[in-house]
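ARCHIVE CARD
Drawer: 12
Card no.: 0347
Subject: one protein chain, sequence and derived structure
Cross-reference: see card 0346
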Amino acid sequence: MAVQSKEASGAYTLEYPSERLSFREHFSSLLLRLANDVPGKSPQTSPATWAGSPPGKVAHGPIDGSARWRRRSGDRGLTLLELGSLGSLAAAACLLPQKDVQGSWTLKELAAFLCTKAVVTRIYNTYLEAIFFSFPQFRTQPSREHALKNKKDLCGRDMKELETIICHDRLTLISQFAFNVGLYYAIPGYYPAAQAVVAPLHERVLRVVGNHYLMSFGMYWMHRALHVVPFLWDKIHSYHHWAKHPLSRNTYDDHWLDNMGNAVVGHFCAQVLLPLDRGSFWFSHIFRILESLEKHSGVSCGFNLAHQLQRCLPFAQMPHHHDWHHEGHKGSNYTFTSMGGLWDCVFGTRKVGRAEEILASQATYRDRKQGKKAGRAKTLLDNPLVALTPVLSVTLSIRKSSGVHSVLSFWRI
């Protein structure tokens, strides 16, 4: 079998397998990586261990075999840390005297909520990777085999970058867990308790839509500021853009402060300023996970369940919009919106991407009307101080009497 790339030491090779890969080998399962990562075992037994390998390509060597860079998957320590933190919370909720917070759901439900989010993330990521490797016609970018030949993953990241990312993955897991549990005790009512009387369905739907637009407003300006403020780009957000051809597993591969900032200006501020009831809160967080994974999935098609659900919204975007944002690296100072696409249109940063090139059915009405991939003139809104102002306004608004107290009053505490 021909070897396409091989170092003198024999530590790294790229091979073309002779046999046709089965469906299960087209993607790496994030559900079972802990059991499959056996030190010293040849990675040849699992060709798809290499994240981003196109079907029929196998990469072996330090970047692949060490498996230290996969978010909450092949990294044994990170997987154990996640299981340990969630397991400890569940054990405390079940075995220790109840420490439930008045006006909030129970500690048991908090444990169930965080465990559910972790499981949904893994299952949906596996689903999206199966789509990426099994349906190449839906990919948002052409495959880049040369990345494998140059000892990079298909997303364009080298070993040093991957090692840095795994460090921040660990910090993200610890900080996010502490933040979520801390909110339970710091702000009674943030995690809404069950109500005897539930609002009519149409009111709940409108509140979810309003909550998500408010959430995406804060995240839009946070994201835009991370691009236009030199320090924030160089020291924080550029880590996420190391992946120029993202896959769903890259969704939270970022500096831990970037992930924390999104948590604060995203779900936290939105729930404080426009609270959701218990059922809507669950739906909002699960939907947000699906949407986040999809826009980094590398595919834009009908299999993107969350994006298909929100296509009816004005100015809706598809995964190919965010993928184009990644492909341009630092020049991609456009398409910042996390959900819906409204704020990109309002503030002039929406760009079409590859919609018409990959799958015309995924092009939205505005894509066809706009017909322009990239490039925009800088405006006053790109000034670092101006871009930071909305972020500070949103975060500071929760300190007012109408802020945190809105959560408590909404649940009549």
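Annotation on reverse: The CA atoms of residues 244 and 327 lie 5 Å apart. The first helix runs from residue 33 to 36.
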